Amino acid sequence: MTEQLDETALRTLFTEARTHGVWLDRQVSDDLLIQIYDIARMGPTSANCSPARFVFVRTVEGKEKLRTALTPRNLEKTMKAPVTVIDAYDETFFDVLPTLFPHTDARSWFASSPAFATETARRNGALQAAYLMLAARAFGVDVGPMSGFDQATVDAAFFQGTSWKSDLLINLGYGDATKLFGRLPRLDVAEACRFA
Predict the structure, then answer these.
(1) Which residues, listed in sequence order, are joined to residue 84 by a DSSP beta bridge?
(2) Is 172 exposed, middle or buried (0-12, 13-18, 19+ CB in 10 A)?
(3) pLDDT (average), residues 41-50
(4) 100 CB contacts (<8 Å, ≥6 apart)?
(5) What number is the average pLDDT over the span 77-95?
(6) Could you tell me if 166 and 159 are in contact, meaning their C-beta atoms sit under 8 angstroms apart?
(7) Which class for 175: exposed (0-12), middle (13-18), buried (19 or more C-beta within 10 A)?
(8) How far apart (Å, rounded) are the C-alpha atoms in residues 44 and 67?
(9) Does the pLDDT value for residue 2 go beyond 90?
(10) Residue 171: exposed, middle, or buried by beta-carbon count in 10 A (0-12, 13-18, 19+)?
(11) 83-90/142-146 β-pairing
(12) Are residues 129 and 87 in contact, defined by beta-carbon separation less than 8 angstroms?
């Protein structure tokens, strides 16, 4: 691939995209959520391990299950968001590697080392969460990622008896741009990068 995204696409994904916390009363359809996932799943992960698991919480009952896990600062924006995605990782992601990475016995790399498996799952699951956010923006859906929640409470409410573990929450919807703060600064290249 040699095509470069145009300025409109770069603005949509990065330079004009913002983290939202106040939401318009407009739903995100299940069909659109499926489209977002179908694009996000194409992003690379090590050995194609794809450990992320997403729960699209969009019902009143689902939101109530989340309520007690949220910090006070994140309560209102999450309860009012049309969708809250629980980004989780599957600790036994390696069980599907014979299908996802059939070139070699990659399952044995992780099955024999729980610490390595967890590290890989968390790192690559976070990558997949970022892909999901970019895919949402590409479809015109605003995002509001956050880590202010109690993971044990979320895991007990949503993942009891499974190998899934929560890592991040991502609110999705159509943000109220009139409620945004001014854009915050970012580190410049001299502060954040080295060339070796």
Answers:
(1) 57, 171
(2) buried
(3) 98
(4) 47, 48, 49, 50
(5) 98
(6) yes
(7) buried
(8) 33
(9) no
(10) buried
(11) unpaired
(12) yes
Q: What is the mean pLDDT of residues 179-185?
A: 92
User: Model confidence over 102-154: pLDDT tens digits?
Assistant: 999 999 999 999 999 999 999 999 999 999 999 999 999 999 999 999 999 99
pTM to 2 decimal places: 0.96
Other residues' Cβ atoms within 10 Å of the Cβ of residue 79: 16
pLDDT, mean of residues 27-45 = 98
Where do the domains of the chain lie, and which CATH numbers do they carry?
26-174 (3.40.109.10)
CA distance 47 to 10: 28
Q: Give the pLDDT score at 1.
A: 72
CA angle 145, 189, 131 (to 5 degrees): 30
CA angle 68, 71, 76 (to 5 degrees): 85
The three-state DSSP-derived secondary structure of the chain is CCCCCCHHHHHHHHHCCCECCCECCCCCCHHHHHHHHHHHCCCCCHHHCCCEEEEEECCHHHHHHHHCCECHHHHHHHHHCCEEEEEEEECCHHHHHHHHCCCCCCHHHHHCCHHHHHHHHHHHHHHHHHHHHHHHHHCCCEEEEECCECHHHHHHHHCCCCCEEEEEEEEEECECHHHCCCCCCCCCHHHHCCCC
